[in-house]
Amino acid sequence: MTKKTQRQPIGAFPLATAETNAIMMGAPFVIASRMSQFWMSMLSTRPQDQFDATDMVSEKMIAAQQSIVAMNVAGMEAAMDAATAMMSGKAAKDPTDAILAAGLKPYSSKVKANRKRFQKG
Questions:
Q1: From 19, 54, 59, 114, which residue has the greatest number of CB atoms within 10 Å?
Q2: Residue 11 and residue 2 in contact, taking contact as beta carbons nearer than 8 Å
């Protein structure tokens, strides 16, 4: 007998879905703003107008590091919750949503911050 794999229903991961939606809604605006800023800075001769493209890369590297740490912490918390649930005789809850949301949070917060910054400027 083969065991059927259970599919998660749509909306089964509310925290991760919220973070994904924040990225999907903000990223196109930020990309368009950054690209226009990048091309306009290429035309300028003033040093203060030069756009530092390394900021874009370093920002994503920092978010990736924060994401890895956050997912590891969420995984450790899930393991502790599972051990506690097992010792108390209760069923452990599925940690998938918390781990996914923890991994997406640094990216969505950067997108939100960039969008606010570009809307003001």
A1: 19
A2: no
> Token pair for residue 53?
């493209």
CB 97 within 8 A of CB 69: no
Sign of CA dihedral 82, 86, 92, 96: positive
- pLDDT tens for each residue of 42-75: 777 776 666 666 777 788 899 999 999 999 999 9
Query: pLDDT digits over 11-44, tens only?
Result: 678 888 889 998 999 999 988 888 887 787 777 7
* Contacts made by residues 92-99, CB under 8 angstroms, sequence distance 24+: 96/8, 96/13, 96/16, 97/12, 97/13, 97/14, 97/15, 97/16, 98/15, 98/74, 99/71, 99/74, 99/75
Q: Which of 78, 108, 77, 90 is nearest to 15 (CA)?
A: 108
